[in-house]
Design brief:
The chain is of the alpha/beta class. The protein is about 45% helix and about 15% strand. It is globular and about 65 Å long.
Length: about 240
């Protein structure tokens, strides 16, 4: 009798249990529902700014206060504010926008721990999948405002840089707030990735480090002053393929 080889015993070569296959297949409809609801509820919120930062930053912390001030300034200037809908910097961003003139949007994610929805959301969406949630952050954003944060914040920052670099998203301002936190990273990107030809200098030209709420508002208006906030026909085509 021939002994089974390692390859023939590999799980990928064995039939999948029918109940598991059915569950995987029906998951597609849950994913579709997240996209449809997101598109329908967010299509009218432009112009908007997506905020990122640590979920662990408590109220009263200087980063929390800074995020709230920036969000309030942007909301009063006519920008909807999109955050992850949870605590920390996300809550600060929603709270600031909630007190302003424009909508406060929360893209909440179901997690085993940490995430709880904050109470400052005019528009609240719930996601089970990070990838569908990420599309909503990018698709409707005229700018990214990134405050100090951890892995999730760095993930969102790398995501938008990659999408712009590869031409899968339109070019938007990426504003890093609080120089002492971000200068080391930006110096490394320029001094290591650019120097070793891992990225081009032009890949980082949209990234700026700012400290004051008024500077964030001015930077966004300056970027769009000669073209307006609405995506061009070419940009709309790009975003359809996001």
């Amino acid at each position: 009798m021939t002994e089974p080889t390692l390859k023939s015993a590999h799980p990928a070569l064995r039939p999948m249990d029918d109940s598991l296959l059915t569950r995987e297949s029906w998951k597609v409809f849950q994913i579709m529902a997240e996209f449809v609801e997101g598109f329908e509820r967010l299509a009218q919120i432009r112009p908007a700014v997506s905020f990122f930062g640590s979920s662990r930053t408590p109220p009263g912390h200087p980063y929390y206060q800074l995020a709230e001030e920036i969000a309030l300034a942007l909301s009063n200037a006519g920008f909807s504010v999109i955050s992850g809908g949870g605590p920390g910097i996300m809550e600060a961003a929603n709270k600031g926008a909630y007190g302003g003139k424009s909508p406060s949007v929360g893209l909440n994610i179901v997690l085993p721990h940490e995430q709880r929805a904050n109470h400052y959301q005019d528009v609240s969406l719930n996601f089970r999948h990070f990838f569908s949630r990420k599309v909503m952050f990018v698709k409707y954003a005229a700018a990214y405002v990134v405050l100090p944060g951890g892995f999730g914040t760095l993930d969102e920052l790398a995501e938008i840089l990659t999408l712009i670099q590869t031409g899968k998203s339109r070019r938007i301002p990426i504003l890093l707030v609080h120089a002492p936190f971000w200068e080391g990273l930006l110096n490394w990107l320029r001094g290591t990735l650019v120097e070793e030809d891992m990225v081009s200098p032009s890949d980082l030209e949209l990234v700026r480090i700012l400290d004051r709420p008024e500077d964030v508002v001015h930077a966004i208006f300056d970027y769009y002053q000669h073209r307006g906030f609405e995506p061009s026909a070419k940009e709309r085509e790009i975003m359809l393929e996001l």
